[in-house]
Amino acid sequence: MTNEAKGRGKGLLVGIFSGAAVGSIVALLYAPKSGKKLREDIKTKSQDIIDDTDKYFSDVKEKATKLVKDIKKKFELLVGDTEENIDTLIDESDLILNQSKDKVGSYVRNGKVKLGKESGRLKAAIKSGVEAYNIQKKAR
């Protein structure tokens, strides 16, 4: 609720209670009663308005307190769920990271083995080529 809407609500409330008070007083003043009876009626009506206002504000305070408690409870649940979800995501990320490390390590080991084999073949081929060259060179 915006501040402007809150201001309108307060203004409306003040207007309603002021109108009720003024209307009650005007009605009492125009009623044909004695001064003493009129003062008693004004006092009674004023007290009724004060009591109604107190009850209204008490109800508003009670509802606002309940609303704040409900929001706080929902927020705590949300934070708890978020923390739980974050922990799960971290655990899953660690698992994926470890699996990735294992796969990369396996690829590197396999690559080294293959490279070692190919390197041996290449050395043997070069050695054979050099020997063939030397034999050809001596034969000339």
Task: Characterise this structure.
- With 140 residues, the protein is mainly α.
- It has one domain.
- The protein contains 2 helices and no strands.
- Helix 1 packs antiparallel against helix 2.
- The protein is rod-shaped.
- The protein starts with a helix and ends with a helix.
Q: What's the helix count? A: 2
Q: Gap between N and C termini, in Å?
A: 104 Å
What is the string of SSEs from the N terminus onward? HH
Low-confidence stretches: none
- Overall mean pLDDT score? 79
**Biggest sheet: strands, sense, closure?**
none
Rg, alpha carbons: 46 Å
Extended strand count = 0
| Total domain units | 1
Write the topology of this structure:
Blueprint: H1 3-30, H2 35-139
Helix pairs in contact: 1-2
Q: Which key terms come to mind for this protein?
A:
single chain, 140 residues
The gist of it:
The protein has 140 residues and is an all-alpha fold. It is built from two helices and no strands.
